[in-house]
Structures are given as structure tokens and as C-alpha cells.
Amino acid sequence: MFDTYYLGYIAIFALLIVIAIAIVKSKKRDFKxxxxxxxxxxxxxxxxxxxxxxxxxxxxxxxxxxLADKEAIQKIGAQGIVEIDNQLKIILGDNAKQLKKYINELxxx
Length: 109
Known about the structure:
Helices cover about 50% and strands about 20% of the residues. With about 110 residues, it is of the alpha+beta class.
């Protein structure tokens, strides 16, 4: 009886660990896909003239800002967007620096 009692707790604990791992993996994003999608939502790599990162903001200058789909950009994870003339300041959090690196690679192709 003593072994069965602890065996039940061990089984529940193992199940909770499996559930926790599944939740963490489901929240982990495929950044390359998201960066590719963001470039597309900005009007494509040819629409991007200049870009930089300032803390959690990705600052991008566009040829034609009307080609950018700001609503869709927010839906894929941007926390905010500010438009000034042909420039967008997109609040991305930790992904801003990764996005700059990815676009550098994309522009070099």
C-alpha cells in the first residue's frame, strides 16, 4: 500500500512535467518565420530603405509606408507601432536585435 501511494504521486508529478514541457515548447516561436513574415508585412525587403534598433524598438524607414500592414504586424507580436513620415518604430521587445541581424542577412542575399 505504501508503494502504491507514492507511485500515484510520482505519476502525477511526471504528468505535470510533461505538460509543462509541452506548454513551453508551444510558446517558443519560430523566429526566422516571424522575421520573414514581418519583412513581408513591411512591404518586402526592397521596400526597406534603412533600419536600426534602439532598445526594444525596431526602427525602419520605408520607401512606401502605405505598403506596411500595421494591423497584421501587431497581430504577429508587435507591442506597438508609431508612424512618423516614412518611418515606423515597432516595439518588439527582445526580438528587435534578432530582427536586425536577420534583415542584414536577407539584404545580403
